[in-house]
Structure formats: structure tokens, C-alpha cells
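Quick question, first post here. What does this chain look like in 3D?
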Amino acid sequence: MKIKYVFTHIIILLSLLMIVEALETPKIYELDLQFTNEILSLNTVKSTYGFLPDRINMPATGYRLELISVDNIILYTYNFNFVTDVFISRPVECFNNDATFNSSKCSEFSTHQKLSDSQKILNVPYSEIGDKINIYDANNQIVLTIDVSEFSDYCGDSICSVKESSFNCLEDCASDEEIKELDSLYDNIKKKTNISHIFKTVLVIIFGFLIYKNRNILRILVSKFK
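> Answer (accepted):
Ran it through. C-alpha cells below.
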């Protein structure tokens, strides 16, 4: 019995920890970027939860990312580079039996290699009014534009955008005729609500009157159950 009690409390505690962690983890755009033969491309983009990169130690040169809002305002910037330079160990054949390096055997071998292909996952803070992400090269030229408007939720800005309609954003896209129909529906509901409220009030008054009228009988019944 004690084991079951402890096990139940452990499950509850773990569930609470998961909820707290989910609340603390910010919503982000996750970009899966590909760098092949000096060409930048996008593998996938999705909206999820995760942690943002450190902006303190950003490279001074390289690529620059900008998150643009539906109003064409820059919401976030981040500088980054791809890892294309790697250093590898020399093979065993480059060394003598006493473990000293033999330059004659590996005179043309370099420990430095340049990769032609590299991949990078970038996390960008999510915004309800995010529209696109532009990536610039070192020459300040746009090399990649990523559409993130499908993840946005900006219904309520009084602008019926291309991806909004009266079905998914009535607040922004309702026509004058639809607004009149809604007003009429609201008035009918309000009238029915008022009638219902009056009816309930009358029932309460009648019920109270009946209780008062039969109070002696009720007093006798209550005394019998004591």
C-alpha cells in the first residue's frame, strides 16, 4: 500500500515538473539550414518549443538573420556562421615506430580540411505577427527568405490579410452584411436571455411563496427527521 502511495506521488511530481518546464520553455521557429558548395538553403522550418542561442558571442562577420513582422518591422536579428573548417588527426602511417612524426611520409598531408557541406539548426524566437525570415550574406545581400506566416496568429489587427478570411478570422474579415447578421443574432440571444431570466425569477418567487405558505407543514416534517 505504501509503495502504491509513493509511486502515485512520484507520477504527480514528474507531471508537475513537465508542466513547469513546458511553461518556461519559449516558443520558437526551428530552422534546419543546409550549406552546400557555398549555397545556403532551407531543409525544414517548424514552430515548436526550445531555447534561443546566445547573442553575446555572435560572430562579427558571416550571415545575418532578421525576423520581419507583417508590418515590415525587424523583430529580431542574429549573426551566425557555418562550420566549414575542421582539423583532423594525422594517420598512423605518418609516424615512425618511436611515435615521432615522419614529415617525408606525410609531407602533403594537411590536418586542416574545408568541408563542402554543412548543416545547422537555428532557433528563432516566435512572434504572433511574424511574417518572414530574411538571411543576408557578408555583402548584405539576401540569400534566403523563409516564409513563417503560416505559424502566425495576428487576428485582431483590423487587417484582413491574404491568409485570413471570415471563417478563420471573423474579427478582421467580416463583411458589413455579416456584421449585421451577427448584430441581429446577438440581439435575439439577448432577448431570449432576458426572457429566460424573467422566467427564472418568477419561478423563484413562486417557489418561495409556496415554501412560506406551507411553512408549518415543513416545520412538522423537519421535526420528525430530527
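Residues 27-173 form one domain.
The two ends are 40 Å apart (CA to CA).
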